[in-house]
Amino acid sequence: QMMKFAWDNYKQYALGKNELRPLTRNGHIGNMFGGLRGATVIDALDTLYIMELEEEFQEAKQWVEKSFDLNVNGEASLFEVNIRYIGGLLATYYLTGEEVFRSKALELGEKLLPAFNTPTGIPRGVINLGSGMSWSWGWASAGSSILAEFGTLHLEFLHLSELSGNPVFAEKATYPVSLSPPQVMNIRRVLNRVEKPQGLYPNFLSPVTGSWVQHHVSIGGLGDSFYEYLIKSWLMSDKKDSEAKKMYDDALEAIEKHLVKKSAGGLTYIAEWRGGILDHKMGHLACFSGGMIALGAEHGPEQRRQRHRQLAAEITSTCHESYARSDTRLGPEAFRFDAGSEATATRLSERYYILRPEVVESYMYLWRLTHEPKYRNWGWEVVQALEKHCRVDSGFSGIRDVYTTTPTHDNMQQSFFLAETLKYLYLLFCEDDVLSLEDWVFNTEAHPLPINHTDSKA
Ligand code: DMJ
């Protein structure tokens, strides 16, 4: 019902724009998608399909068939286009088998290739989808590429490569780095070569020299989905990609050793690291890590399994506390563990909630892996809070301050609310065989991609 409400309002007021502005009842284009439109349509497709909202799925599909134009010219984020558009199209293709989604994914994938044309093969963050020119984000230090951006391509690109299976398509990729797996693996080669301070991965890397540009480490924004894609690459390969598993294990070991802390009040959290100095803060984005660590904990020696299961549960519980300690029962964009604060935002600029999914994402994984009822209870608390504070007359909106029961709304219904937040909430209350974790991995935008089971290929 929440999904239908979010979709119906987007359709009525913003179809063809990227996202709905639910207060002003119009659409928002944004500046991340390089002239591409319909981010909400593409992000919502698989959720509508899974929820069996058939009429709504057909509306979305028709828009893709008739109006989704890839001949655009504008600055796109390689990362955002990959996780939302390519991920959404691939997942919908795998769920439905409908050719239109496959061909659009491949066509769009090809347009992203020039971003890899750098001395190291590490792609730049921004690409003009028309001209193929690429460059680094103006805000990223010294022309660097971002770990969470170039480290979050692997799952989708392996599927593009597998699905293309077409020599003509491969020949078209006449760039130094093509779409085939070995070249995506090149990113790993660079990362394996470069020295890591205390085994940690900083967030900024030069695509020219292949060296770190700044020593900021975070499992939240700028770093997050790099770690997620290591463990999921291994799972998606039916546990064959041992390089990815080793990189994940080593990275997590360094994180456990240097970043995992316990607050005075007994809450476990993962701090950020700036050139050796800890910042005792967790971003909302970092809350995905409870689910990731739980997923990774299912594999490995018994002692580590137990330790990682416990760590995953503790992080998820801390993230729940960040929700429970607010007046709206929704969590802030970042919360701190210093100057007497415990899982609460201390800065005005960090008090907002933009319909983000990471906390319910962890509830979903923890529920599926432990079946402890508290995770469903916590998920239900989120449903109630969203209904109470984020539902407005014409859609769902983010709020500017989670610490007041009369928050003002930000007038944005983010596309990831339909792709992720509502999908994870739905899966939390479904049977485990709906998109079973045995058969699917979710990309970082919650688009399910099939695991390459060796036996199913035989
Ligand atoms: C989503 O687009 C993805 O989950 C991404 O990895 C991080 N940020 C948003 C949601 O918060």
Automatic annotation (TrEMBL):
Pfam families: Glyco_hydro_47
Pathway: Protein modification; protein glycosylation
UniProt EC number: 3.2.1.-
UniProt keyword list: Calcium, Disulfide bond, Glycosidase, Hydrolase, Membrane, Metal-binding, Signal-anchor, Transmembrane
Catalysis performed (reactions): N(4)-(alpha-D-Man-(1->2)-alpha-D-Man-(1->2)-alpha-D-Man-(1->3)-[alpha-D-Man-(1->3)-[alpha-D-Man-(1->2)-alpha-D-Man-(1->6)]-alpha-D-Man-(1->6)]-beta-D-Man-(1->4)-beta-D-GlcNAc-(1->4)-beta-D-GlcNAc)-L-asparaginyl-[protein] (N-glucan mannose isomer 8A1,2,3B1,3) + 3 H2O = N(4)-(alpha-D-Man-(1->3)-[alpha-D-Man-(1->3)-[alpha-D-Man-(1->6)]-alpha-D-Man-(1->6)]-beta-D-Man-(1->4)-beta-D-GlcNAc-(1->4)-beta-D-GlcNAc)-L-asparaginyl-[protein] (N-glucan mannose isomer 5A1,2) + 3 beta-D-mannose; N(4)-(alpha-D-Man-(1->2)-alpha-D-Man-(1->2)-alpha-D-Man-(1->3)-[alpha-D-Man-(1->2)-alpha-D-Man-(1->3)-[alpha-D-Man-(1->2)-alpha-D-Man-(1->6)]-alpha-D-Man-(1->6)]-beta-D-Man-(1->4)-beta-D-GlcNAc-(1->4)-beta-D-GlcNAc)-L-asparaginyl-[protein] (N-glucan mannose isomer 9A1,2,3B1,2,3) + 4 H2O = N(4)-(alpha-D-Man-(1->3)-[alpha-D-Man-(1->3)-[alpha-D-Man-(1->6)]-alpha-D-Man-(1->6)]-beta-D-Man-(1->4)-beta-D-GlcNAc-(1->4)-beta-D-GlcNAc)-L-asparaginyl-[protein] (N-glucan mannose isomer 5A1,2) + 4 beta-D-mannose
Positions annotated to bind Ca(2+): T444
Cell compartments where the protein resides: Endomembrane system
Matching InterPro entries: 6hp_glycosidase-like_sf, Glyco_hydro_47, Glycosyl_Hydrolase_47, Seven-hairpin_glycosidases
Catalytic machinery residues: E80, D224, E333, E358
CC cofactor: Ca(2+)
Disulfide bonds: C287-C319
Superkingdom of the organism of origin: Eukaryota
GO molecular function: calcium ion binding; mannosyl-oligosaccharide 1,2-alpha-mannosidase activity
GO biological process, one term: carbohydrate metabolic process
Annotated GO CC locations: endoplasmic reticulum; extracellular exosome; Golgi membrane
Membrane topology per record: Single-pass type II membrane protein
Protein family per UniProt: Belongs to the glycosyl hydrolase 47 family.
Function field: Involved in the maturation of Asn-linked oligosaccharides. Progressively trim alpha-1,2-linked mannose residues from Man(9)GlcNAc(2) to produce Man(5)GlcNAc(2).
Stated name of the protein: alpha-1,2-Mannosidase
Source organism of the structure: Cisticola juncidis
